[in-house]
Amino acid sequence: MRFDDSAVLHRVCTERLGDKAGRQFAAMARRGFRLIPATDEAPATGLSRLGGSALLEPGTPWPVLDGVPLSAYAVLDTDALAAWLGDELPVRPGLLNFFHLDPDIPYEEYRELDVYAPEAWRVVPADPARAVETAAPEPARRYPLRLVHAVGVTMLPDCWDVEDDDIEFDGDRHWGATSLILDAMDDLNGNTAGSHCAFGWPDTSYASAVTGRDADGPAVHLLQLAEDAELGWGWGDAGTMYFTIPARAFAEGDFGEVQAIGRCC
């Protein structure tokens, strides 16, 4: 759920959920971005991009899974995003390169690879002052370059990323907090997948959570990639790819703990 105005967010939450539950839900808001194609009127946000080459420091090995190179999907320039994220960006990792296994070879040639292994995806930081354009080695798939403009928005979790302890609800009317959000937020209940987003909360239209939890709370959402015919990628029927990281690992700058989650109809 995305809002351009945080005051509207708080008003909508209290009007639909009541004062207490509304304030509890509004307190879960996070800052994030819509990633739209860059234009003269909306120039590229730093070095942020979808597709194209990776931006890696010289000598950085290209990530592979059992010798098969991953494909480069996106780069986020966190220095350019930092002003809006504020305290929600506890580290300054510079550039974040996002990779996933997607080789341009017949499936039969890599079907025995463990596509759910942590090495099947990777987020690699890079110093923007030292990073250079690095093309993917074959047989990694190469996607066309799209520079992006990051539009700052405030996001609420969708119904599936809310747990019962997060929000007060009437147990006689609702089977859980998810049920309350589905009912009361109605058209804003999170069924808004279909766009590219960074940070904040993921948008989903699937009946399952994306941001897992541990003792430190919900995972941090880094990137949402929607099916995109122009870029030439997709993950099943109306599929979406999400990259998340445990809150502790994010605070420590340990991007080795990133998880990639695919969802499709």
From TrEMBL:
Q: Which SUPFAM superfamilies match?
A: Hypothetical protein YwqG
The superkingdom listed in its UniProt entry is Bacteria
Do you know which InterPro entries this protein is assigned to? DUF1963 (IPR015315), YwqG-like_sf (IPR035948)
Query: In its UniProt entry, what is this protein called?
Result: DUF1963 domain-containing protein
Q: What is the lineage of its organism?
A: Bacteria, Bacillati, Actinomycetota, Actinomycetes, Kitasatosporales
